[in-house]
Amino acid sequence: MNYLDLSIRELHEALLAKKVTPLELTEEALKRAHENKDNAFEFIDDEGAIAFAKTLTEPEENNPLWGIPYVAKDNFSTKGIPTTASSDILKGYVPIYDATVIEKLSQAKAILIGKTTLDELAMGGSGTTGHLGKTYNPYDPEHKRQIGGSSCGSAVSVAAGIVPFALGSDTGDSVRKPASYGGLVGFKPTWGRISRYGLFPFAPSLDHVAYFTRDVYSSAVLLDVLAGRDNHDSTSSNRPIECYEEDLDKPVAGWKVAVIKQILDSISNEEIKNHFIHSIECLKEAGITVDFVDFDNKLLESLYATYMVISCAEATSNDANLDGIKFGPFKEGKTYQEVMFNARNEGFSELIKRRFVIGSYCLMSENQEELFLRAQRNRAKIVEKTNAILKDYDFIYVPAAPSVAPSFDSASDRLSDEYLIADNHLALGNFAGLPSITLPLFLENGLPVGINFMGRAFEEKKLFQMANAFEKLSGLKDLSVNNKKEGNL
Amino acid sequence: MNFEAIIGIEIHVQQKTKSKMFSAAPNGFSRDPNTQIAPLDMAYPGTMPVVNKQAVINAIRVANALHMEIDHTLYFDRKNYFYSDLPKGFQITQQARPIGKNGYVMVAVPGGMKKIRIERIHMEEDTCKQEHFMDYSLLDYNRAGVPLCEIVSMPDIANGTEAREYAEAIRNIVVYSGTSDGKMEEGSMRCDTNVSIRPYGQKAFGTKVEVKNINSFKNVELAIDYEIKRQSQLLLQGKKIQQETRRWDEASGRTVLMRVKTDAVDYKYFCEPNITPIHMSDEFIQKAIETCPELYDSKKERYLKMGLSETDVEVILANPKTAAYFEEGVPFVQNAKNLANFLIVEINSYLNKNGITIQELELSPKTLGEIVTMQEKGGLSHKQCVDILNKVLEEGVSPEEAKKDLKIVAQVSDTDTILKFVKEALDNNPQSIADFKAGNQRVLGFLVGQVMKASHGKVNPAEVSRLLREELEKR
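^ Those are the sequences you sent over. The predicted structure of the assembly is below.
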């Protein structure tokens, strides 16, 4: 064990006591980053991180992030630091401004040590489609398993103990799913709670700034810093922010939790199911009411299609700025169309082009009604149903994924309920913009599996309180490849 | 065969807000290329649009002046297409829910006023400016993101004159509401016109031709009248009109084919996800309307009541800065008409001669008012006041100093004093009286001259003339 395997709270105490300095922490984090073999990094900022760490000499008692190294997914705009979104189209692009979250962390004196790999432009869930190739799950030294995506490099960085927290983005489940495969706490807040200014958009109506930690306290403390109104993002909420960690240890007895029956039923892995059901018993013992509720199966089966239509449609428009004129490789052409065509043809991978074609097709005037607008209406139905459940229950509680981290060569039946529902239900939180947190449940043959709690809009504080209670039950706080544990559940 | 023309106009006005439609970059005109820009204007990845409140207020004011229904919720859409002048690859506009719809404006036509209905007004953003050279093009993003209002008329316009009147009416509203400079010559107002013709009595519309690149109000009229003539001749020759976009070529006074329209472009509109619908309270809208600067029509009415002629009013209101100057000067004169005369004749010719604008004029409205008052109450003639004004303008001295330097003395208008000179002149020139009685009117001029000479030019010649006639009658 090393300081970097500790949580933000313990690290902060060590820094205050001057047992370790920001510079020592940074050097160790950089060393671990360079040594890591999981293809987690687009760019490691040795120079910038060391220079910043050297300026941090006097610990700040009331600043829990002071001197703590972190990484950010390579789709956050970082001034002066190359940012590619793991796409060739942005090769060589150096942003001229910092994303709001990057700026906030910099003001809190957290130290950015690098930018992490992702599925190209954050479109994907496997962590295999970035321009640097596959990102590997650190729990599998043989490199046969995914960490999941799209925030793959950020997940690796926290699971491998390189840093105690990492920024990611979550459009469908891009933080909360890899958190499940990496034994991490993966959190996304209510849509509008954290400014998205400077996050390269995939599908803005679904996009969230999200992040990984190894414990609930760190997750709550981070929201204190990252949340809040930003005049650069008019969709950011004016609601006052709260002290998200202050009620963590308060009792949760009496709360009501809904388990969506169809989601559990769609999982075939009996061991996961058994552990999950066991966890329900433990929650009940802790005084929590747990009920199974119904969610129209057809509606759940439509999640993936609805998500694809909306996200691809928005994406095709968002990435239209990458045209080889301002951004992207400039390719000669006789007309502006040729210049754009050549840049985009070479810059985007086939998978991305496929998504753009789907998105454009859905938006064409003759198809809009049948595809894009229909998907929007279906989204509204899904949101309505989700919120109806949360009217009667404080949280929705489900397994975060139907399996441990899949191997690269595993094929899933994309028409099965296991795929359509169990592998895609986390998108409920994106459709409805609700706060949602993934936590480790247990390890199956040394590979983690997570669960997910989703709460009502802007009830992050309560969600953290619930998650903290669960973390105590599971005993899987501070899990990492350097700190493997057997859980209680 | 006689044809009826059916014309609709789409007008884009650039708003003169402090910052751009969706970014905090300054909205400035004619500065160095690519200096008035924020990351959003060049579509840097991760940037997000934030709606400019003043642009919304302006749009509400224009919508209100055009008698439109105002939507209390703001919605924005993306219009998607690839073009080298379009930074984001989409334009943020208001397709589905424009801020205003179903309005009208009254325009002057021979024999009265005509109502031109207006379909919609919506807000959007401008593109960047392209400069094309032999084998390369340059892009200037200063214009990218400048707030625009697009005003779309119904096809209620029948000819070039009406079109010009309509465009001028819109110009007057956008200029006096403080929304835009409304200068077609500089591109801060652009008129795209749709012209079709059909034989009188035919119900179906003819093929629509779009005419762009019109750079003055006069040319709106000329371009449309040319286009009507062109289309009429085609039809009379038994030819077909094709659906196309033409541009006005000022040099040749003709419209020239730009491109034939094929199928309409599919802009794949969808709701802008980075701007959630914005509800505007009744109070907000009401306040925007109530605080709107006085509009053209209201000023016109007021100036007419001050005694100005219709022509004078139009000349003054042609430039809002002139109107502002005029209004500042009015409190310092007895009769606004006298001020208007000086402004329209002397000041305008001075501005023209020196190639400056009224904003650059150093003479304050108050000082001009003082000079006008010298004519009104100080007993100086118009000519004398013009001399004083010119000296003040040239040398920057005060009117009193100018008067002193020019050795100008007040005319005597006092009847008794003048009468004394008149009687003296008549007494000294009995032959002239006889000639006058015999019908020789010309002696009147001679007698006036005698009076002026005797009085050293101090008396008011008009008054002298009047009193001479009276005295001659008596003798």
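Residues 117 and 292 of chain A are 38 Å apart (CA to CA). The first strand of chain A starts at residue 41 and ends at 44.

Shout if you want it in another format.
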